[in-house]
Amino acid sequence: MSQHFLGFGLGLRTDHFHDVLEQKPDLDWFEVISENFMVDGGKPKYYLHSIREHYPMVMHGVSMSLGSTDPLDMDYLKRLKQLHDELQPEWFSDHLCWTGLEGVNAHDLLPMPYTEEAISHCVERIQRIQDYMGRQMLIENVSSYISYAESGMTEWEFLREVTDRADCHILFDVNNIYVSARNHDFDPLDYIKGTNAERVRQFHLAGHTDYGDYVIDTHDHDIPDPVWKLYKEALLHFGPVSTMIERDDNIPSLEALMAELDIARRIAADTLTEDQLTPRYKDAV
Ligand SMILES: [Fe+2]
């Protein structure tokens, strides 16, 4: 049984700050985007700490660029650690990707080449980040639209090797796997079956934009049926995993997102036992 199951949560977004404090919605936890709060004071910080008093939180970063060949940004890590110390989240995460080179930010989460060299590179950097932060981290699979001729293994083999060797955990983004499976023509079930289940600590669920020949990970739609189906498969394979919805554009009301989170709860209740679905917060990672 998982000792790390936080239950069902949402990504905390500015649009909902007021409503969350006012309504105290019936959800188990929030994920916050670290970079939005790596500042001194201000209104967002006020809301963050006020909401933290009522809910467990996890921190999710988007700009660690852990796969880049640029040196690790120690100033960024210092500010991340400060926020971590303030918030005392259940865990922190970032993406298995690179976001820039030679100081130029691509403003995109770019996939890695799936090579031995890239595995060693990422493992060494994750270990240094974990040493600095004093705890294990979660790394998330990104959606992708390109691949590299150099890649000598599948994405899930790459993810397995990196996480096993670095001894970190996985933030398994179900929508990203659906998007990448469509774009690269692989079976998403192979991805699920090829992932080291004992390392999966969190799920992301989101919507996307389907252009027919390709799919873009836009986070601006409701979660579509194929992603819900994949979520059920992921639950069957991984068991109870902390689940949340990411919505970053065309953001609906808090009530609408809570209704969408209820769908996740129903699918999990149909797939897992009641005991498996009891949240466990203590020593989450
Ligand atoms: Fe995600």
Automatic annotation (TrEMBL):
Domain of life: Bacteria
InterPro entries given in the database record: MbnB/TglH/ChrH, Xyl_isomerase-like_sf
SUPFAM superfamilies, per the entry: Xylose isomerase-like
Pfam families in UniProt: MbnB_TglH_ChrH (PF05114)
Family according to the record: Belongs to the UPF0276 family.
Protein name stated in the entry: UPF0276 protein IOQ59_07245
